[in-house]
Design a protein that fits this description.
mainly alpha
Length: 36
Amino acid sequence: MTARFTDLARPLLTVVAAFTVAAMMVGAAVPVLPIA
């Protein structure tokens, strides 16, 4: 059970981390768009 949970948690954690980075990049880009 624990091994299956780990197998599911790792990709999920990777997706969450990638989504967080993407959200930060978008958040940083949005204020620049009206200026540019």
